[in-house]
Design goal:
Blueprint: H1 3-15, H2 22-35, E1 39-43, H3 46-56, E2 64-68, H4 74-81, E3 85-89, H5 101-107, E4 112-118, H6 127-137, E5 140-144, E6 152-153, E7 156-157, E8 164-168, E9 181-185, H7 188-198, H8 206-210, H9 230-261, E10 277-278, E11 284-287, H10 294-303, H11 331-337, E12 340-343, H12 351-364
Parallel strand pairs: 2-3, 2-4, 4-5, 5-8
Antiparallel strand pairs: 1-9, 6-7, 6-10, 8-9, 11-12
Helix pairs in contact: 1-9, 2-9, 3-4, 3-7, 9-12, 10-12
Length: 365
């Protein structure tokens, strides 16, 4: 937090208009410009973005939606909330933790309506194969780009490659606000559906009526309160202006990690450098050697005051989704699920902090 962010929030507070208003509208315009999308709709959080994207894409009871199990649980939860059934799919491999296009193909059934792909850690999926698959089977492609603001696949911004893209502004994301998110699309009809669903199915917002652009409203669909407020929009506008520079800093830090750790003591870092993508480097993920004790490894780093995380426990292993665990074999997800560790990564991380992490990792192995 710094003076620029504090000033932006104070100005929003003093404006007297705290719910959806001019700063939200400005953020939508700037995010659309940044991403190259025709439409950008600010929402309460990334989960709301996924829910709206699924509903606007027509997913509902009786449908199946393909989704990687190595993922945050919000992806599956939102599918269930539409009434559709999540079908969990495997990753590409130990070096590429994004969803496997081959396994997506194997999972398609007559009930499949959409595929939700996640650009894991800010690394773009194999979108050429995924788009080809979707076109062959008439599937909607929803990009979970929560990790990937600013990431590019073949010069195209992640989130704008499929039918609709979803972003998160949670406090640990590359564009951190606390809570918040964005839906982007080039599809006019899909954008209109998401816009209506975002605010109770109402045809006009309070801000529209406040400015005299409308005197009443109709409700044309059963919607939700998924709006973003002015205070968070003010923070997001500042953070959006810093995103590309901070992504570059993340890339530099990940390179330091990779140079120091990849191949050392049986450790590997997934996502070797590729010429056709520009990752957002949301995560710095380490793969422990087979048979390694992850709990002991993490405890050793805690002793050196270094926090680690796990991204993610596979969704199909959670109690709420155990009924899905036996439906499809996910051997590659199972193989890496117990070996993944996420290292500290933030754009203002100093070289001394990077060195402390790498020294602790090598010592722990």
């Amino acid at each position: 937090m710094d003076d620029e962010i504090e000033h932006a929030v104070v100005q929003a507070l003093r404006s007297g208009w705290w719910s959806t208003g001019p700063r939200v509208a400005e953020l939508e315009q700037e995010f659309a410009r940044f991403s190259g999308a025709r439409h950008a709709l600010a929402v309460a959080n990334g989960t709301a973005a996924l829910h709206l994207a699924l509903l606007a894409s027509g997913c509902g009871p009786g449908d199946e939606v393909l989704v990687p199990s190595l993922n945050f649980v919000a992806a599956a939860n939102t599918i269930v909330h539409t009434g559709a059934t999540p079908v969990f799919c495997d990753i590409s491999g130990a070096n590429d933790l994004t969803v496997s296009p081959d396994d997506l193909e194997a999972a398609v059934s007559p009930r499949t309506r959409a595929v939700v792909v996640m650009h894991y850690g800010g690394h773009p999926c194999r979108m050429d194969a995924i788009l080809e698959l979707a076109a062959m089977h008439g599937l909607a492609v929803i990009e979970d780009a929560a990790h990937a603001p600013g990431a590019r696949w073949q010069r195209r911004m992640c989130g704008t490659i499929g039918d609709v893209g979803c972003f998160s502004f949670f406090s640990n994301k590359n564009l951190p606000v606390g809570e918040g998110g964005m839906v982007v699309t080039d599809d006019d009809a899909l954008a209109e559906k998401a816009r209506l669903l975002r605010s109770h199915g109402m045809t006009t917002l309070t801000w529209d009526r406040h400015r005299g652009h409308a005197s009443n409203y109709d409700v044309v669909v059963e919607g939700f309160n998924y709006r973003l407020d002015e205070l968070r929009a003010a923070i997001a506008l500042v953070q959006l202006g810093r995103l590309e520079r901070q992504n570059a800093e993340r890339a530099r830090i990940v390179d330091l990690f990779r140079d120091a750790l990849d191949g050392v003591n049986g450790l590997t870092m997934p996502f070797a450098r590729r010429a056709d993508v520009t990752p957002a480097h949301h995560l710095a993920v380490l793969l422990l050697p087979e048979g390694g004790d992850r709990s002991r490894f993490r405890a050793s780093l805690v002793e050196r005051e270094i926090q680690t995380s796990i991204h993610y426990p596979p969704i199909h292993r959670f109690r709420a989704y155990q009924e899905f665990a036996s439906r499809r074999a996910l051997p590659l997800t199972e193989a890496v699920g117990e070996r993944l560790v996420t290292l500290p990564l933030f754009p203002h991380m100093s070289d001394d902090q990077v060195q402390a992490v790498t020294d602790a990792v090598v010592s722990a192995t």
